[in-house]
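Sample entry follows:

:::
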Amino acid sequence: MHHCPYCQRSYQRKIYYDRHVSVCEILSKSKRERRLESEENADTPTVRDLYKVVMEMTVKYNRLEQKYQELSQDMAKLGTQQKPKISTLDGLNLKYSKALEFTVWLNQLKVNRDDLLYLFKGDYSKGVLSVLKQSLRLEDEACALRSFNNKDNVFYMVEQKKWIMMSDEMYTKLMHNLDKKFMTEFLKWQTENKDNMYLDDFSLEYAKNVKKIMITREAVYSRIKRDLYHYLKS
């Protein structure tokens, strides 16, 4: 049994008791109490008022979010614009300051008997490339030549302690230098084997070797350049 605390009425079922109490509570209040309560609740916003406030706050939040995104993008662009772009030559001077000067490296290039015999087994371009690859180790900071993907068929070299782009004339100078060294080694080999010139087997071998060493050099320079570029590029 449930008893109303305001009028002492009794209810067996709680659902009816709850309905009664909510109404009886209001009716049991004096006029003064109801007036004071009305004044106190006058500033309490309605559900509609709360909805309007939430909508306004949502709009303001979305505007602030948009401004934040725009500001972030502007800052990112500003950072990219202010970041200095390092040129290929500046990068080489910073990273490979210990590289050999081209002239020094060129004078150090050697062509020995093994190099000549390797040329005999293959062809002139393979012989020259073999010598160059042995002298140009990419993992070595002193490597005298460099190439990159952004410049097709272009070599970089050091002159007067600064990296520069290799000119066609300098590349030709490199090739002529190797031509001379291979020819010098060939003449030594020829002198050492002069007594074998009249042997049939050797005379055939000699003829093949002469043909390889006496090839028109300019015809293979471009092929060597292309292959060397692919070897050096990073």
